[in-house]
Each structure stands twice: as C-alpha cells, then as structure tokens.
Amino acid sequence: MKIVYCIPSLDNSGGTERILTDKVNYLAKAGDYDITIITTEGESKKPYFLLEKNIKVVELNINFNEVFNYSIVKKYLITHQKLNLYTSLLQQFLDEQNVDICVSTGGKEMEFFKKIKSKCVKVCELHFSKNFRKQFLISRKNNIFWRLIGNYRNIRLIQQVKDLDQLVVLTRKDLKEWKKDINNVTQIYNFSPIYSNERSLLNNHSIIAAGRLDPQKGFDMLIKAWSLIQDKIFDWKLNIYGQGDLYAQLSKDIDENKLNNTVFLKGRTNDIKKELLESSIFVLSSRYEGFPMVMLESLTCGIPIVSFNCETGPDEIIINDDCGILVENGNIEKLAEGILRLINDNELRVQKSIIAKKKSEDFSKEVIMQKWINLFNELYLKNKTK
Q1: What angle do CA 16, 226, 171 make, to 5 degrees?
Q2: Residues of the chain under the 70 pLDDT cut
Q3: Residues 207/239, Cβ–Cβ less than 8 Å
Q4: Is the distance from CB of 201 to CB of 302 less than 8 angstroms?
Q5: What is the CATH number of domain 206-362?
Q6: For residues 138 and 27, is the Cβ–Cβ distance under 8 A?
Q7: Distance from the first to the final alpha carbon of the chain
Q8: Which of 280, 76, 311 is nearest to 173 (CA)?
Q9: Alpha carbon separation from 304 to 263, 279, 317, 368, 374 (Å, rounded)
Q10: What is d(CA 286, CA 187) in angstroms, rounded to the nearest whole number?
C-alpha cells in the first residue's frame, strides 16, 4: 500500500512532527507499506526526528512561510501562485506514483486538497481541536474582530474537510462537535511517544511542566498559581521545560513574584522521559489543547497530574480524578489547590501514580497504530471497489 503524508516540514521538534515520525516508522517496519513524506517548507534540512531508511522524503521547497512579512496584497498574490504550484506538483506526484492514500496534517494543501482529481483516498488527520484556529487568535488578541476572523477560519475548515474521504480527529469531544457538520469523521487518539517500564518513585520534591513558552500553554497562570502557595510548599521546586517567545516575560513574572529559588525555566530537554521519572507531579496549565501528548508521557512514567479542564483532551485522560486532579479551566486558585493537595498527600500521589501507569497501556503505540492500520485497510478496500 502506497501512503503519502503531507506536512510543512520535518525539521521542527513539535508534537505533530514527532507523532508523524513515530507513525510512519511503525508502518515502515510493519511491512507492506511504501511511505513517502512530502514537505513544502525549507530546503534540504535534516529531519529533527530519525526516520527509517526506507521512508522517502520529497522536498517541494515551495516555502509559504517566506511571505510572512510581505504586504497584504503581495502576500495574497504570491501565496496564490505558490498554491497553484503546490496543487500541480502534488497532483502530478499522486498520479505518477499511483498513491493509494494521501494524508494531510492540516497544512496548505487543505486549501485545494478536496479538489485534487486523483484516484487515491484523501484523508486529513487534525492535530488540533475543531476550534483551534479561533482559540489561537483569541489567546493573543481577544476582541470582536479577531473572534470574527476565528469564526470564519472555523467555517473554512469545515468546507475544506467535508468532501474528503475521511477526517480523523483526536478526541471524542471533538468527534461529537464535528458530527454536527459532517459525516466522514472518525476519532483516533495519539499514542505516547515514549515507552518506559519504570514508574517514578515520587521521592523527589519536584514538579514538572513542559511545552512551548507561548500563550497557549498558560505558564503565566501556572506561575501565578505557584505564587499563591509559595509559603506552603516547603522545599518543592517547579521545573518548566520548553523554549519560546515568552521566555523573557515568564522570567519577569518569576522575578516579580520572588520565585527565583523555586521556579526554574529549564529550556528544551532532549530526554523528557528522564525528567518525568525524576519528578513527582506533572501540571498542565494550557488554555486549550488538541490532545496533550505530554500528559500521555506523564502517564507512561506514572506521574500524577494536575490539569486545567481545557476544551479537549484532559477530561478524556483524567476521568473522575483517577490518575490526577482536574480543575476548572483558567481557575488559577483551583490549580494552586490541586497542586498543594498532591504535595501534601504522599499516599494520594502514589495511588494516582499506579493508576496512571496502568492507564498508559490504553495509549500505547501498538494499540493506537492498529486502529490506524484498520482504518487504512478499510479505506483502501472501499476505494478499490468503487
């Protein structure tokens, strides 16, 4: 079976690049799959994550990102030209290679994907929630104009996916939302990108958070929550892993709240498993998520979780506070209370840690990839009998 994945680039260390790499590597080793990845951004950049040798990468070097600082008119005209080029090149490749299934990860090909005249099955796998584009804009500029732009982008996304062969979303909640508009939708969770047969000993007074330092991840709210309990935490530390544009602002927040001895911005780590296994609590402070992989990584390492109940994801991992504590989205006081509760109750931490480790089996690579294989086989056979 010939499968093509479309993604802007492979040289970033983001969650989409990571999960895609793990998926195609699994398929490549499973046999009977001829995998090609098509990218549009950059030129001859080495993939951040290692790919199996039998996976082909086709770099189209269209570079949509280069128009970012252009004027509106120039940006529109050049983007239109680039989309026409991308349409032609992708159409040509799918036809010449007799591709069976083409999978979009939600990049620029979505502007024309449904219009491509190819015999292959067209699939979109969304790595974000239905309302992501609106949430993204509001998290940065919360006013009526940007809300309207966000609503328009949501409507555009619905139009782009409704005539595809299949849309795959990350959560059951998102599946329910999408079914209000389209029928060709199913749901498959992400799997944990790490494996560990160990469980954290929970003997370090260390709390961990991880993600890009940007508004989405809500580390500003986490620092505020920590400031509310700083006089009650004894020798506990908060380590925040990640890089991003908010580093300076978050550093300032730490300084202003006199938290320099207990809160640390650690930068990017190349071994998140090691850091998780040496921690005793994981905190997710995101304003919104698709399906947070770092929570799955925490389960794998048996780390009890405190999390905002943001729109999609956390409440399908933490159920009835089994492996962690779920608090009202954006409620900083409740987040602080949840953290303090786990700090003060070692028995509760151990109880939730054991449940977390057991629950991680539901999100193993083998379990989730079998669902993808079943879906591909179903779509392939259906297409062949048309």
Answers
A1: 30
A2: 43-44, 132-143, 146, 150
A3: yes
A4: no
A5: 3.40.50.2000
A6: no
A7: 17
A8: 311
A9: 19, 10, 11, 22, 32
A10: 22
Helix H or strand E encompassing 327: strand 324-327
CA–CA gap between residue 348 and residue 324 (Å, rounded)? 9
Quote the distance between the C-alpha of residue 86 and its chain's center.
25
Residue 364: predicted pLDDT: 94
DSSP class of residue 63 equals -
Task: Measure the CA–CA gap between 269 and 275, rounded to whole angstroms.
Answer: 8
Is the distance from CB of 175 to CB of 187 less than 8 angstroms? yes
DSSP 71-98: -HHHHHHHHHHHHHHHHHHHHHHHHHTT
Q: How many other CB atoms sit within 10 Å of the CB of residue 81?
A: 12
CATH fold of 2-127+364-384 reads Rossmann fold (3.40.50)
How far is C-alpha 125 from the geometric centre of its chain's CA atoms? Answer: 11
The tens digit of pLDDT for each residue in 241-266 reads: 999 999 999 999 999 999 999 999 99
Q: How open is the CA angle 23-26-28, to the nearest 5 degrees? A: 105
Whether 323 contacts 352, CB under 8 Å: yes
Bridge-based pairing state of the strands 305-308 and 281-284: parallel
Dihedral-angle region of residue 83 (phi above 0 means left; psi in -120 to 50 means alpha; beta otherwise): alpha
Quote the CA–CA distance of 223 and 227 in Å, as a whole number: 6
The C-alpha angle with vertex 87 and arms to 84 and 89, in degrees rounded to 5, equals 110
Listed by start position, the domains of the chain span 2-127+364-384, 206-362
Compute how many other C-beta atoms are within 10 angstroms of the C-beta atom of residue 39.
Answer: 22
Please say whether the beta carbons of 214 and 208 come within 8 A.
Answer: no
pLDDT of 141 reads: 63
Paired with 305 in beta bridges are 282, 324
Give which of 286, 251, 252, 281 is closest to 266, Cα–Cα.
251
Residue of 227, 284, 233 whose CA lies nearest to 250 = 227
Specify the length of the chain in residues.
Answer: 386
Amino acid identity, residue 171? T
Match 């252009």 to its residue by tokens.
Answer: 70
